[in-house]
Amino acid sequence: MPEVNTDKIFAAFLLRLEEVAKIEDFDDIEKEFLGKNSLLSEERKSLSSLNEVSRKKYGKLLQDLSNNITSKLDEEKTKFKSKFFIQSELNDNNDISIDWYKNLGSKNHVLTNVMNEVVDIFAAIGYTVSTGPEAETSWHNFDALNTPDWHPARYESDTLYLDNKLEKLLRTQTSTVQVRHMQNNKPPVYIVAPGRVYRSDQLDATHSPVFHQIEGLAVDENLTFSDLKGTLEYFVKEFFGKDLKTKFIPHFFPFTEPSAEVLVSWKDGEWLEILGCGMVDPNVFKHVGYDTDSQGFAFGVGVERLAMIRYGIDHIKNFYENDLRFLRQF
Ligand code: DAH
Q: Which atom of ligand 1 is nearest to the CA of 178?
């Protein structure tokens, strides 16, 4: 009867398992304990020299050892793998259950929220959204909107041009979208057009060279100045609530006749203009290919000003400085 002690081999195998540091170590251990040159294989070779009774008995002993080693190896390998993946997930910080948006506190900018809210207020009474490019032609920004050649808004001191011929510019107003929309759509029209506009303005508390507007346009049979006033009253009440004091005063815009402005009482009894409006001038209808006796009204709202009044913000620059202490408040 050979002298090899299978318990000792198994104990040595268990000790080796404790040293495992990487998945490849399991292959080495397998080779060492079950491979061609392992003790087990050597012993198997010597079986042929035994008589039948001893061969059977010893053969079974060796087979049990081999089975035990194989199953323990599999078991430990599975455990090691799952530990390995859990650890590498932790290292990667790759937790798919994390709601990054919520946990990082990211959210829309206050101006985006205000624009969305204004759009929703008008959507509730049947308006849809229309958009246009920020780089525009002078024709869409001025000519089509009935702005005479001599109008000061066309000066380079007021408008940021993109070429020397003064034919291309950064739009100074979202009113350009009125023009584009009417060129491509027949009445009835009920649209709002939120977007960014540019002027060569100095930064002060209420002016910035880049800001946001929401244009509105309604063209339909029998629309009157009362419809315009009613629509804007509805909007101002929905946005600010019923208690805010507002003022509706006559004004001049080249593209509307008559024209008006809405002012809202701000800080220390000051009035701040939040929008311009009026009945669309027949010349505008002519330029976009509508009948000149079409009826409609238009308005342009300053988004920053809406936010400043609602939240008591005293300088427009706060919107663009991206100071998280400011942004996180909304
Ligand atoms: N575009 C004007 C501005 O930027 C605002 C405005 C006034 C828009 C009257 C209109 C309007 O549609 O009818 O100051």
A: 12
- Residues 183-201 have pLDDT tens digits of 999 999 999 999 999 999 9
Q: What is the pTM of this model?
A: 0.70
Q: What is the CA radius of gyration of the chain?
A: 40
Cα(218) to centroid(ligand 1), Å:
13
Residue that the structure tokens 């000003």 belong to: 305
Is 137 inside a domain boundary? yes
Two tokens, residue 240? 């600010």
187 and 246 in a single domain? The answer is: yes
Question: Comparing C-alpha atoms, which of 191, 193, 189 is closest to residue 220?
Answer: 189
Q: How confident is the model at residue 86 (pLDDT cuts 50, 70, 90)?
A: confident
- Short-list 66, 28, 29, CA closest to 44: 66
Pick from 33-47, 285-299, 303-317: least confident: 33-47
* Shared-domain flag, residues 152 and 276: yes
Pocket lined around ligand 1, Cβ cut-off 6 Å: 173, 175, 215, 253, 255-256, 259, 276-278, 298-300
Residue 101 domain-assigned (yes or no): no
Q: Are residues 298 and 154 in the same domain?
A: yes
In the chain, the N- to C-terminal Cα span, in Å, equals 86
Same structural domain for residues 88 and 237? Answer: no
Task: Report how far ligand 1's centroid is from the alpha carbon of 164 (Å).
Answer: 26
Instruction: Work out the number of other CB atoms within 10 angstroms of the CB of residue 168.
Output: 15
Atom of ligand 1 nearest to the CA of 216: 12
Residue 14 lies in a domain: yes
**What span, in angstroms and rounded, lies between the C-alpha atoms of 21 and 17?**
9
CA distance 55 to 43: 11
- Domain residues for the domain of 244 are 110-327
Q: Are residues 215 and 116 in the same domain?
A: yes
Shared domain for 267 and 296, answered yes or no, is: yes
How many residues appear in the chain? 330
Is 73 among the domain residues? yes
